[in-house]
Amino acid sequence: MKVNENYLNLEASYLFPKIAKKTAEFKAQNPSAKVISLGIGDVTQPLAPAVISAMQKAVEEMGKKETFRGYGPEQGYDFLIKAIIENDYKARGISLDTDEVFVSDGAKCDVGNIQEIFSADCTVLLTDPIYPVYRDTNIMAGRKILKVPAIKENNFTPAPPKEHSDIVYICSPNNPTGATMTKEQLTQWVAYAKKEQAIIIYDSAYEAYIQDDNLPHSIYEIDGAKDVAIEVRSYSKTAGFTGTRCAYMVVPKTLKGLANGKEVSLNALWRRRHTTKFNGVSYIIQRGAEAIYTDEGKKQIKETIAYYMENAKIIRNALKDLGYTVYGGQNAPYIWLEVPRGQTSFGFFEKLLTQCALVCTPGAGFGEAGEGYCRLTAFGSRENTLEALERIKKL
Length: 395
Ligand code: PLP
Hints:
Layout: H1 15-29, E1 36-37, H2 49-62, H3 78-89, E2 101-104, H4 107-113, E3 123-128, H5 132-140, E4 144-149, E5 167-171, H6 183-196, E6 199-203, E7 229-234, H7 236-239, E8 247-250, E9 256-259, E10 262-265, H8 266-277, H9 283-291, H10 295-321, E11 325-328, E12 334-338, H11 345-356, E13 358-359, E14 361-362, E15 373-377, H12 382-393
Parallel strand pairs: 1-13, 3-4, 3-5, 5-6, 6-7
Antiparallel strand pairs: 2-8, 7-8, 9-10, 11-12, 12-15, 14-15
The site of pyridoxal-5'-phosphate has 13 residues, from α4.
């Protein structure tokens, strides 16, 4: 039995386990140190009360013969899909049909799985630094990868390159840089995709963190985007679902790919893939996700996001006062810190760990252009965030 040799082209260690290993070693050697993580992008605040009571009600239903539910529709329950369309799209002037939305167990799975419907000889375009899942899943598939650097000279929001590509991943607001594309910038990417007959996979897992009313929340706010873009959203960071698991992907019916020179519907291919390999998100969880769209749910998740964004502001301001150069953190929960001159991002990570018992994420782990930066997150508690900054002051 031969294995998929593309897997051998992956870096030996995925970024987050590597950081976890180093952190665990530090903790073992310093058992009394209170290590604070500003590193991995997991949330810390509990699920909203509206979500909890909706899930409790759903559990009750599952316990009664009359209301018990077995397998649900693979694509997601209508009640959730309708709430998504109404609140996330119609409210922004975007119309979608119910069969264009696919509920899933996570944006990570979606951005990785979607590439199964594309040919292995498609060329993939990534911005660098990047959420590593886009890169690694395409390495697994053996695709050629091109990169455009997202650097301070282009405000971490690069313009499309001259080179051809077939699949473009855009993450906005961005993990890790915290930069967010404007409508004008996205318009350029949509034009590029049209010209190159490429598909954009638009990951807007952090759209709920956008504070500036002029910034787009969906790529479908751009004219013509429904002809070239798939959009991925997640409840993980929007509503604390990192452990609960629920996300969705929009695959418009206007999207076409080519097979033997003939047009094929990407929506039809994805439906085939999704319904063949996936059996739907649990009813209980989908009821929880639906509750995010109630008045009460909206208010509660807004408060939690405001809490994280206040952390982001505190981190940004404190680091600036200390003379650091920082980016992001204004429309995203990530702060992109330029490490002091002469240090590497791993070097700075180790320095923060060993001298301050703080964990950050070295930028180099997100790609070559991430060298020289570290990612800090606003997802901690206020208390830990303030203590972390006190420790950095003493560095
Ligand atoms: N997309 C981006 C850009 C992310 O940063 C993350 C999580 O960190 C995900 C997707 C994963 O989302 P989910 O928890 O829905 O799998």
